[in-house]
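Marked as duplicate of an earlier ticket. Keeping the data here for the record.
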Amino acid sequence: MNCEETLELLEEYIIGELDLEKRQLVEKHLQDCSDCNTEYMETEEVIRGLHNLKNSKIASGDILNMSKMVGERKKWEMPIPSVAAAVFFVMFLLTSSVIAFPTFASTFAPGLPVVKQLLETQKDYNTAMQENQEIKILNEKIEQENQQLKKNIKEIGGFSIVEYQTSQSIGEDDNDKVQNLVINFIKAQYKGDIEKIKAMCTEEFKVQVDRMKDSILMDSKGDFVFTQITNISKEGDSYFVSVRLNDTSDIPDYELDFELKKINDKFYVSFEGKDV
């Protein structure tokens, strides 16, 4: 247990509210640390004084009840101003004890209105501090996510696209090659360039492209925007990547899923599917 932890537990240690394990840890630290032991003795003296004051005649109900005290002023040897000063002094000490020793005050003087009010204020303050800390942590998390998002924006085929890490990368060079290939494939779809599309396909997929020409080429010839692309994943001898984009068609946002093969150290599209 270090000094900070020990000092935080001093008050509860002094008034006997610690469990056995924590009490033994505090005692061991006080034996080894002269600074904390000095703080302990000073704190213990203050709390003992407040405890004695709580049980003294000056802090009794007759004196705390000012109206009753005034009605019975003849029973007192001291004049009213002195009694009032004494009461003020008692209240000052008890009020101060709430701030300096909240556990002590709530244990030995819970019924005093000033103690109730200050303890409630302290509770509200602690709640507010906790909420502020949670908000701070949330803001820091959002900022980290924003910074991470900025780092993942890539320039691919003349477009700025957010790259999402969905799997362990296959290597930066191959990852970039595949991403550029599928972006150029999509650009050719929007331009209606079927020959350029076929040049990027495996021999098997070229046959399907000829048969599915109408579905391969995009109806919209307007502007389109790439919103995200995944990094490349690999399963066996196949490579996979997904691209999200939107255009001026009736379907504003959709995803294209690609499967690719690597042949003679060059990538070719072996399948493309549209996912709305």
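See parent ticket for discussion. The chain is about 60% helix and 20% strand.
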